[in-house]
Design brief:
Layout lengths: L2 H5 L1 H16 L8 H22 L5 H27 L4 H12 L3 H12 L3 H30 L5 H13 L2 H15 L5 H12 L1 H13 L7 H26 L3 H11 L6 H8 L4 H26 L5
Helix pairs in contact: 2-11, 3-7, 3-9, 3-10, 3-11, 4-5, 4-7, 4-12, 5-7, 6-7, 6-11, 6-13, 7-8, 7-13, 12-13, 12-15, 13-15, 14-15
């Protein structure tokens, strides 16, 4: 394992530790991390998606990469769903398995890791394209599963309408749509506006990882009988499926590495917020976020070492 591979985890570990230290020393009070998450969710991440996607020249090869992204996540969700059904798990645990595979911290953790470890413009554009592909589907599936849990007995039409309204006003999805529109239309923003959005986009990686550390401080782990297997599925099964899909489709080394690293990211921290809002398996979700966030710092380095050896 080279120094460069290990060095990819060092900035992440330092920023997570600083976030935790800020909470421990009361520089940040409990709940302050929500302000950081609000900034990321409504300003920095939409700016990142828009700036990178609008500058991306969409090609047939990128279409193959997008297909690989969808097939990786969809295949893993299908495998976990079939396993949950075969084990006759309760309905809420089946929903949890779907959330674990589909709702990862690709933007808050995956993109920063790709930036720190690979650092090229191609890697950043591929990471943004991958997250732009998965995020709308992950958010849609998460809302659909949670709305279905909260509105059991309510008609499917009403559940779908509620989910649709939430998605229509989601800032991430709106910025993704706008970025693709600018790319396909060949439009450019005035330079001062583009510069402002670029500054916002550049703050995403450090603020996201720092916020993660602040969020993790003081959290405990429980329900290990469920959270450990699901953590292994998120950090091991999903990237393994991604590698197989990338190999089968003949993706380039860079595409394969980015795809595996994105899908090796932990469970989304926002899932904890949603679980409390919907009163859905809050202990398990909080434990999953903690286990996968801490574990991914190690496992993502291992995946980078395994699949990124072909990179210069």
């Amino acid at each position: 394992m080279t120094y460069g591979t290990l060095g990819a985890a060092v900035p992440l570990a330092v920023l997570v530790a600083l976030g935790m230290l800020a909470r421990r020393s009361n520089v940040l009070q409990q709940g302050d991390e929500r302000v950081l998450n609000g900034y990321l969710y409504r300003f920095a991440l939409p700016a990142l998606f828009f700036v990178n996607l609008s500058a991306t020249q969409l090609t047939a090869d990128m279409g193959r990469f997008v297909f690989a992204v969808l097939l990786s996540v969809g295949g893993t969700v299908a495998v976990l769903a079939a396993t949950a059904r075969a084990l006759s798990l309760p309905e809420d645990l089946r929903r949890l398995t779907g959330l674990t595979a589909a709702f990862g911290s690709l933007a808050f953790f995956g993109i920063p890791f790709v930036e720190f470890s690979l650092g090229t413009e191609e890697a950043r554009q591929l990471a943004t394209l991958g997250v732009a592909t998965i995020s709308p589907l992950g958010v849609a599936l998460a809302l659909a599963l949670l709305e279905g849990y909260r509105q059991e007995g309510v008609s499917r039409w009403r559940q779908t309408a509620t989910t649709g309204r939430r998605l229509a006003t989601n800032p991430l999805i709106l910025s993704i749509a706008l970025g693709f529109a600018f790319s396909l239309g060949g439009w450019d923003l005035p330079r001062p506006l583009l510069r402002a959005f670029s500054l916002l986009a550049g703050s995403t990686a450090p603020v996201a990882v720092f916020s993660l550390g602040a969020h993790l401080w003081g959290k405990g782990v429980s329900r290990l009988s469920w959270t450990v297997p699901l953590s292994v599925a998120r950090l091991g099964l999903l990237p393994a499926v991604s590698f197989f899909v990338a190999w089968a489709l003949g993706l380039s080394c860079m595409e394969r590495t980015v795809l595996v690293l994105l899908n090796a990211s932990p469970v989304a921290v926002n899932m904890v917020v949603l679980s409390h809002r919907y009163a859905f398996r809050t202990q398990e979700v909080s434990s999953l976020a903690l286990l996968t966030s801490v574990g991914s710092i190690v496992t993502m380095v291992l995946w980078l070492w395994l699949v990124g050896g072909c990179l210069p």
